[in-house]
Design goal:
With about 450 residues, the chain is α+β, with helices and mostly antiparallel strands. It has a domain at about 40-320: 6 Propeller (Neuraminidase), CATH 2.120.10.30. Helix content is about 15%, strand content about 35%. It has helices spanning about 1-20, 45-55, 230, 290, 350, 385-390, 425-449, and strands at about 30-35, 70, 75-80, 90-95, 105, 125-130, 135-140, 145, 150-155, 160-165, 170-175, 190-195, 200-205, 210-215, 220-225, 240-245, 245-250, 255-260, 265, 270, 275-280, 285-290, 310-315, 320-325, 330-335, 340-345, 355-360, 365-370, 375-380, 400-405.
């Protein structure tokens, strides 16, 4: 009997050890510059090829701007939207491990698959996402020269998929229906991927005339668009941007988007929060993914979403790109403040925002974020305000990639609540103290009987 009592005591002690506070999170580092460029150059097939592109204005160095960024294995993928002429490639890679502070970009998947005017090739890529299965989701607007007097809708706006795990880099192109996306006015800006129920993508379209969120379901390649004028449109008081003495007027609609972790709602069903904001706004909004997945709302007009949209509150400045980590921490920029901020979504947005970096010299227009597999977050700084005003100087640093170790990983790797809990999962761990206590009480009862 004494042996049983000792066993129960040991079990109770072990169970209590399981409930001790977890070790502290990895120590955070300050953001530091790992790459910077005055102008963007490429890995050309030959010096003669580069010269030919320059002589025919197919490559105009000051017209190439880095916008999006994503991580996979040993590479960072960068996007160069063709807002102006002279952008020879719209998607390219550089190594994660720096060997040069201003590396040349390697067009991806190849030079030929970045050919302007070839509708089997990439035309205008603003942003990409890479999901937990190694599938790259590419937004191709199809229309080039969006900052010129004559934008050219060369090809249909499309979603392009590439299975990176296969190594073949074959592109599956899925054009959007004209009923969903107007090829002459759309601007496919950013996306998040939800690997549930057949895989969904939620895409911001900051069209000047018809802003909204496009929902794409991969299982049947169907898409629809939902709209809410109040939360997805620019507001007059936020269209003026002031950065380091430069002012620019940009009335831009819905722009950044992020996807929160899975959770169970009051009915016990798994859902997620989608967060978004117009570029020209001081507010952050949220809506349930389950609402966006209701395709009938796309047919009910602009007021259909209104009851489901939550205004989370006010930000100190405007935000372009944003990214969620796997635990529900949102990383975002505050452009007018030269600031990178974060918010833990378990805390009220109105009191939970936190500045993690501020520097008017190095943080000049925060664009997109990504995470690698070692707990690092990367952010693109691109001085977009100079780009849109045609003030890019080739004698100054215009594009930077900053990096900080935060211990974070991407939202695409967040916990899947639809999977059954294993025997060693959280539920069994939580039950261990109760089991040990029961054993101890049973042993004592036997001893005293």
């Amino acid at each position: 009997m004494l042996a049983l009592l000792l066993f129960a005591a040991v079990a109770l002690a072990a169970a209590q050890n399981d409930t001790l506070p977890r070790p502290p999170a990895p120590r955070r580092e300050q953001f530091r510059v790992i790459y910077e460029w005055n102008v963007i150059d490429f890995e050309w097939k030959s010096p003669e090829d580069r010269e030919a592109y320059l002589n025919t204005s197919r490559y105009i160095p000051q017209n190439v701007l880095i916008s999006g960024i994503n991580f996979y294995q040993d590479d960072l993928f960068l996007t160069m939207p063709r807002m102006l002429d002279g952008v020879p490639a719209t998607l390219a890679t550089i190594p994660v491990a720096p060997s040069d502070t201003a590396p040349k970009l390697r067009p991806f998947p190849s030079w030929s698959q970045n050919t302007v005017g070839d509708c089997n090739a990439l035309q205008f890529v603003q942003n990409i996402e890479i999901d937990k299965n190694g599938l790259m989701w590419i937004l191709d607007n199809g229309r080039v020269g969006t900052l010129t007097q004559n934008p050219d809708a060369k090809c249909p706006p499309s979603l392009v998929l590439i299975d990176l795990k296969s190594g073949k880099n074959e592109m599956e192109r899925i054009p959007f229906s004209p009923d969903t996306v107007n090829p002459n006015t759309t601007y496919l800006n950013d996306l998040v991927v939800d690997n549930r129920d057949g895989d969904y993508a939620y895409i911001t379209d900051n069209s000047a005339v018809d802003p909204g969120i496009i929902v794409f379901r991969r299982s049947d390649k169907k898409s629809w668009k939902v709209r809410d004028t109040q939360s997805m449109s620019s507001v007059a008081e936020a269209t003026l941007f002031r950065i380091n003495g430069t002012s620019v007027e940009l009335p831009v609609n819905i722009d950044g988007i992020a996807l929160g972790p899975q959770y169970r709602n009051e009915e016990g069903k798994v859902d997620r929060k989608v967060y978004y904001c117009p570029l020209s706004s001081y507010h952050l909004y949220a809506i349930n993914a389950s609402v966006l997945q209701n395709e009938s709302l796309g047919q009910q007009g602009k007021g259909a979403l209104r009851p489901y949209v939550v205004d989370l509150g006010y930000k100190a400045s405007q935000t372009d790109g944003m990214k969620m980590d796997s635990t529900g921490v949102l990383f975002y920029g505050l452009i007018g403040n030269s600031t990178i901020a974060e918010w833990n979504t378990t805390v009220d947005f109105r009191v939970g925002q936190r500045t993690i970096a501020r520097d008017p010299n190095y943080i000049q227009w925060v664009d997109r974020f990504t995470f690698d597999n070692k707990g690092n977050v990367y952010v693109v700084i691109n001085r977009l305000y100079n780009f849109v005003k045609n003030l890019v100087s080739v004698n100054e640093v215009n594009y930077r990639i900053l990096k900080s170790h935060t211990g974070s990983k991407s939202y695409v790797l967040s916990e899947d609540l639809s999977e059954p809990t294993s025997a060693t999962g959280p539920q069994s761990a939580a039950a261990a103290p109760a089991l040990a206590s029961s054993l101890l009480l049973l042993a004592m009862a036997q001893l005293l009987a």
